[in-house]
Amino acid sequence: MNPEQDFNEDLFEHYRIVVDKGQSLLRIDKFLVNRIENASRTKIQNAARAGNILVNNRVVKPNYKVKPEDVISILLPGEPHEIENIPEDIPLNIIYEDEDVLIVNKPSGMVVHPAYANYTGTLFNALLFYFLGKTDKAGQKIFPWLVHRIDKDTSGLLIIAKNELAQAILSHQFYEHSIKREYTALVWGDLENETGTIEGYINRSQKDRRIMTIYEDPEKGRASITHYRVIKRWDYVTLVNCSLETGRTHQIRAHFASIGHPLFGDTAYGGRQILKGSLYSKYKQFVENSFSLLKGQALHARTIGFIHPSSHQEVYFESELPADFQEVIERWDRYVMGRNFPS
Fold first, then answer.
1. 5: pLDDT strictly greater than 80
2. In-domain check, residue 314
3. Do 214 and 248 share a structural domain?
4. Closest residue by Cα to residue 55 from 29, 77, 34
5. By CB neighbour count within 10 A (0-12 exposed, 13-18 middle, 19+ buried), where does 255 fall?
6. Measured on CA atoms in the order 196, 200, 205, 210, is the torsion positive or negative?
7. Confidence (pTM)
8. Positions marked catalytic
9. 153, 176, 199: which is the final residue of a domain?
10. Weakest mean pLDDT among 20-24, 117-121, 244-248
């Protein structure tokens, strides 16, 4: 019997195991340690305490006795690879920290998690350096446990767990889509409605694996839902607030591109070219100067709210728009108010 394993974008691993007919009664933590490679008993127990182990669709505790033909479902946060464990002295913008969590405001241009061609200079490398020599109340070394990420060229708030149990609890909230997240985005064009919802099944593009595409067929992708509200309009571009019901890779970027309103400055999804307005030289220069101000696409993870893993109270954090994004907004204000040439 081998578990079925699925890796998703959010650094989680999901296993589904059907217990053999001849299995004798055995504590589920002991059972799973022998079935899942590199999973310690502590990791299994933390998953159970976080509500991440279900048997026959019911949450169970670590002392549950596995029975023949039980169907076990378990969610585990993934482990970083050894090559990623390189502490680097990179400045961090920390807006909150306690015994369990760290809230970081990530700048645009920084990769969150080491991967091919980005083994250094990441947020994870910076966190490893930040925690060097630090211990918790029990004297255990503190390690950064990632539970989610945002794109390299997106700025904004990220939750970092400081212990394995906190990671398991927070991972469960992300998996259940109960984390409350809002983004601010500048999109091309004048959106038709003041509020709206963009839905579709998202997956890698068949033409370019680096970007995501929205499909109508549920067999071709994973469900994705973004709600938006217009904050301000400038005819050519619109500032919106986005709340995520799901959190898929490139979700906001792919969603707005799919309705013909890609994010301003988003190279991958066609937003770094003039999509609204004329090619009049003064306007063209204005837009190109605005592009040059941005370090990435005009997208900022502005707020995040979740149930704290220790206090079990809802907590909420908010960050201001980065200076480059704010400057582009102010430039559009000045341009639209003072324009005196064709649009």
1. no
2. no
3. yes
4. 29
5. buried
6. positive
7. 0.84
8. 151
9. 176
10. 117-121
Residue 149 covered by a domain: yes
Residue 120 above 90 pLDDT? no
> Cβ contacts of residue 329 below 8 Å, gap of 6+?
186, 232, 239, 321
- Token readout for 42 is 């502590």
- Any idea which residue has 């040439």 for tokens? 341
Per-residue pLDDT band for 128 (boundaries 50, 70, 90) equals very high
Asked if residue 154 and residue 198 are part of one domain, the reply reads: no
- Give me the amino acid identity at 235: D
| Residue 144: half-sphere exposure toward Cβ, Cα within 13 Å | 28
30-39, 72-81, 133-142, 239-248: segment of lowest average pLDDT:
72-81
Residues 59 and 96 in one domain: no
Hey, which residues does 181 pair with through a beta bridge?
304
Distance separating alpha carbons of residues 166 and 172, to the nearest angstrom:
10
Dihedrals phi, psi of 183, to nearest 5 degrees = -120, 150
Q: Which domain holds residue 256?
A: 182-301+322-338
Look at residue 343 and tell me whether its pLDDT is greater than 80. Answer: no
**What separation, in Å, do the N-terminal and C-terminal C-alpha atoms of the chain show?**
66
Given this model, what pLDDT does residue 79 score? 56
How far is Cα 63 from Cα 54, in angstroms, rounded to an integer? 13
Per the structure, the count of domains in the chain is 3
